[in-house]
Amino acid sequence: MRLYLASTSPARLSTLRAAGIEPVLLSSGVDEDAVATAAGPLDGPQLVQLLARVKAEAVVGRTVDTVPIDGFILGGDSAFELDGAIYGKPHLPSVARERWFAQRGRTGHLHSGHWLIDHRGGVVGGAHGGVSTTAVTFATDITDAEIDAYIATGEPLEVAGAFTIDSLGGPFISRIEGDPHAVVGLSLALVRELLVRFDVPWPSLWNRRL
Fold first, then answer.
1. Residue 65 to residues 62, 68, 69: CA-CA distances in angstroms?
2. Residue 18's domain is classified under what CATH number?
3. Among 172, 162, 142, CA closest to 99
């Protein structure tokens, strides 16, 4: 059983590979900001669920090396919520710095949306989605110099909430409550749950020797 990942996220790819799955990568090409603006006011879980669905649907019907998609398409999206405000990718160093000053020593929630489309046989046979939310607490003693050094690496500019847990940002996170994989952007437990709804066992996706 093949899994087609509607994302080019290195973190999501690494997570799947570590779980024994080598997905087929397909860029969705979705303009996330445009989709969010058109949708109007949404809370964190609603936003990531919408974007995950739009990304997965964007690759429906595509071919890979002239061969139609035959398997499951997975779309995902993440957003960080702090004090009721929703934060995606900061893009700019100044924005990332402002966010880190606000979240230092605080606890926020990382929402990770998933949408799984049954595309076996080259046709759509249904879809299921879900959201996994994890509480993330940042260390209280992070210095301004550490924040500036982290931002200078460029890593936080293109990730939701301006942080990672599986790379350079990990040492600045003191505690999480919930699914650690969801913080990376792909909840393995939730994807398995979605597969079960199609009566598909998780081991059927294993195609990578560890």
1. 10, 8, 10
2. 3.90.950.10
3. 162
Q: Is residue 210 part of a domain?
A: no
Its domain, for residue 191, covers 2-205
Instruction: Please write the tens of the pLDDT for every residue from 86-140.
Output: 998 999 999 999 999 999 999 999 999 999 999 999 999 999 999 999 999 999 9
168's tokens: 């350079």
pTM of full prediction above 0.70: yes
| Under 8 Å between Cβ of 76 and 112 | yes
What residue has token string 């929703």? 86
| Rounded Cα gap, residues 34 and 44, in angstroms | 16
pLDDT number for residue 13: 95
Q: How many domains does the chain have?
A: 1
Instruction: Name the one residue in this structure whose structure tokens are 């100044």.
Output: 94
> Using an 8 Å Cβ cutoff, are 63 and 42 in contact?
no
Is position 33 annotated as part of the catalytic site?
A: no
Catalytic residue among 43, 65, 70, 77: 77
In this structure, is residue 83 part of a structural domain?
Answer: yes
Q: Is residue 160 part of a domain?
A: yes
Structural domain includes residue 10: yes
Residue 95: which of 149, 147, 33, 157 has the closest Cα? 157
